[in-house]
Amino acid sequence: MKPATKIVLAALAAGVLGVAAGLWREGRFTSSSSAPAAAPAVAGAEVGDPLPSVALPDLDGKIVDLRTRFAGKPLLINVWASWCGPCVKEMPELERFSREQGTHGTQVVGLALDTPEAVREFLGRVPVGYPIVLDMPGPADASVRLGNTRGLLPYSVLVGADGRIAKRKLGPFEAGEIRDWAR
Asked: Using one digit for the tens of pLDDT, what is the confidence trace for 51-81?
């Protein structure tokens, strides 16, 4: 197995463990037989589908509707968490791409599956200029609705200016990869 493949597999395993730990910490995993039934599965969007409704709070609590705020512009949605090593590693690359695109190119939005406190603390160390919205991990979170049915991070979705999902990517972007991927 190639070293790069081992790294990706290790990163994906770490992401799964991180999500599981977060859910356990929130009390969503219990050993009690009286645990609530699992929520019904949510169908994730496929390439070619319209962007599903994603309206989430930003760090100030203001609801951001991605369909309306970025209508008519290409949009790269990057799902991440502060505890996800590969997510953290790719943040500078996403920031660089966002700055290169400016207000007329592909817009970038970070969708953090994390607590507001953890995201604020993280962004204090690793600031980014693109918008960040928040959701909590779960069986029907925005990441799942965007097609991330495996629940792994990082996960990115490219939405065309026509409002349809053009591409999806599971795993981190390598240096220089985003520009070509977003074409």
From this structure: 999 999 999 999 999 999 999 999 999 999 9
User: Which residue shows structure tokens 């507001």?
Assistant: 116
- Please, is 136 exposed, middle or buried when counting C-beta atoms within 10 Å of its C-beta (0-12, 13-18, 19+)? middle
Does pLDDT of 46 surpass 70? yes
Residue reference for tokens 């990057």: 78
Closest CA to 45 of 146, 155, 157: 146
3-32+43-181: CATH number? 3.40.30.10
Q: How far apart are CA 91 and CA 89, in angstroms?
A: 6
Q: Which DSSP letter does residue 70 get?
A: T
**Spans of all domains in the chain:** 3-32+43-181
**How are the residues of the chain apportioned to helix, strand and coil, as percentages rounded to the nearest 5?**
35, 20, 45
